Amino acid sequence: MNKILWSVLLTLTLTACGTTSGTKATVEDRTGGKTDAAMGSLTGGASGNGTETSALGGKGAGASALDGSYTGDPRKNPASPMSNRSVYFDFDQFVVKDEYRAMLEAHAGYLLSKRDARVILQGNADDRGSREYNLALGQKRAEAVRKALAVLGVSEVQMEAVSFGEEKPRKEGDTEEAYAENRRTDVVYADE
Amino acid sequence: MMRTLLLSPLLLLAFLSASFSTYAAMEIQVIGGAANKIDVAMVPFQTAAGQPMPSLTQIVGDDLTRSGQIKLVDVSGTQQPVDLAQVNYGIWRSKGAEAMVIGQVTALPGGRFEVRFRLLDVIKQTQLAGYSYNISAEQWRATAHQIADIVYEKLTGTAGIFSTRIAYVQKQGKRFELRVADADGQNPKTVVRSNEPVISPMFSPDGNRLAYVSFEDKKPVVYVQSLQDGSRRKTAAFKGSNSAPAWAPDGKRLAVVLTRDDASQIYMINADGSGVTRLTRGGSIDTEPVFSPDGQMIYFTSDRGGSPQLYRVASSGGEPKRVSFSGTYNVSPTISPDGKLLAYIGRDEGRFRVMLLDLSSGQTRALTDTARDESPSFAPNGQAVLYATVQAGRGVLGTVSLDGKTHARLSESGVDAREPAWGP
User: Fold this and answer.
1) Helix, strand or coil, per DSSP, at residue B76
2) A128-158 as b/e, with b when 16 or more CB fall inside 10 Å?
3) Are B126 and B120 in contact (CB under 8 A)?
4) What residues in chain A have per-residue pLDDT under 50?
5) 3-class DSSP state of A80
């Protein structure tokens, strides 16, 4: 069931973003271990941007019972894919990659179980070129995640896709690493 | 933070100028020969005790030089006349001057000053203009810019822009300030302070309001703010992102970019936020709208062809037509006051530069030789383009003449400036 949903979702996303030029897809290979790397830099780089609200690691967000079960906010359970909040995109690409399937399914499950929950999808872009055009590129990344969640059944009234463009970089600098870190959409809950 | 800003939305600091006691020396770079430039002798005005600094002659001279159409003649080593009877035209002609400016400042009671100046045609040996002003010290720079406007217009036949204003965003640490300054970047006044980014300011056609995008609500929202009383309203705060405001020439409506129905698309909206109608359709990005001077056309950036390019569409709607064809990244159009030229940012070999496109011939050329240019904005007289670039890792503002030969940096040192817009 999930597999079917996911392939439908990917197809839809691909169709929606027809401009898959693909010529520079090899600039960064973000597959394999990428999520871990992203988590590491997020946890360590919180000083860079106080307004980002991606709570990824620890921070005492939830308590662990003696038997090891998690009793805190399920969205912050380090063992749950919901504790992942960032979807990264390849250069000039707006397709949600397969590696984010478990994460988005978990968030969709939460949103389906809590109809009053609201999620904001915050798209970002690297800082090369026009600020307004980059705002539109960030929006495209936010919309890609919004559509992915919609395909998983999440109601439109629970979601808002917005863009920060290049204005709130998580990583500053003119390096491929910084560019890649900023090509992302963050999943942020309104009550967090 | 957000709440504080909403409660006191405006921080219009009308008398902030007094605190800016240090003025950065303006950096003006002239590339290439002086072809077609008018040679002007700016004779230092006779000074008065207690007059503000820098001198009027300095400010006027910088204004004229920055235009790229006037070249200052060396005035050293010569007797420097103050009034008409002292002028020996032959001397000034031998120094290459076609015109000269003389004048004097006299201290008046109450801390005021009288400023007199004359613009003289050295070849014909006649006076082209002569004015006197009774001013307070606060009007010092404004008076200098007025003198520069008169000199420029008399000599070139084109209206000067030295008394106009610019808006830009200054970033200091995590603080953002939307500022309004004189056209030479001096005398800045802060009109918005925020802990969140502010982008895309644009003056209303009458210069009394600013439209801009603020992220203080954790998303981009379009505001219109009065520069007279500081009041402001959210003009576009729809679901999704709201950005890229552009005033229609009538000052009543704006084009904005919304994402409430689809990808980033262009809409028309009244300045009070009412009457929203959609202009462009499709799943691709349409953004950075700008009206043609007659209001009939909107030029914008779109990736509908696969890469960002410039297009135009009738402001009443219809099928967009592509207007940029060379290169794979052409964005941020600004149109000349006569509607014949577009300045924009084009990427070539990884460099983002200010480009100029002749709309009738389709010919393009680069105006700058920098690599990180953004946000071009035409001068109100169409003779120069204001833009942002990066110099030594810092955002700076610059102007470039339309021949690409005269470059000026406007920013104070130590300030990170971006998102400039030229106003009336």
Assistant:
1) coil
2) bbbbbbbbbbbbbbbbbbbbbbbbbebeeeb
3) yes
4) 1-5, 7-64
5) coil
> Does B306 contact A133 at a Cβ distance shorter than 8 Å?
no
Neighbours of B72 (CB within 10 A): 18
In a domain, B9, yes or no: no
Cα A135 from Cα B258, distance rounded (Å): 11
Q: Residues B147, B280: one domain?
A: no
Give the CATH number, domain containing residue A84. Answer: 3.30.1330.60
Chain A nearest C-alpha distance from B221 (Å): 10
Q: Do B285 and A140 touch (CB under 8 A)?
A: yes
pLDDT digits (tens, 9 = 90+) for B145-162: 999 999 999 999 999 999
Judge if B273 and B316 occupy the same domain. Answer: yes
* Contact list, B176 vs chain A (CB under 8 Å): none
Domain that holds residue A60: 2-17+27-44+54-189
- For residue B384, what are its two tokens? 């120069």
Please state whether the peptide bond connecting residue B54 to the residue before it is cis, i.e. omega within 30 degrees of 0. yes
Residues B375 and B263 in one domain: yes
Instruction: Answer with the residue of higher pLDDT: B236 or B32.
Output: B236
- Rounded Cα distance between B35 and B253, Å, is 42
Give tens-digit pLDDT for B190-208. 999 999 999 999 999 999 9
State chain B's maximal CA–CA distance in angstroms. 72
Q: Nearest Cα to B54, choosing from B26, B23, B28?
A: B23
Burial class (CB in 10 A: 0-12, 13-18, 19+), B401: buried
**Residues from chain A contacting residue B243 (CB–CB below 8 Å):** 132, 135
Residue given tokens 């890649």 in the structure block: A180
Distance CA B241, CA B255 (A): 14
> Which residue in the block uniquely carries the two structure tokens 């380090």?
A78
The sheet that has B309-314: what strands, in order across it?
B286-291, B297-302, B309-314, B321-322
ipTM of the complex: 0.91
Residue numbers of the domain that contains B120: 36-156
Task: Specify which residues B100 forms β-bridges with.
Answer: B41, B120
Strand order in the sheet with A86-88: A86-88, A184-189, A119-124, A159-165
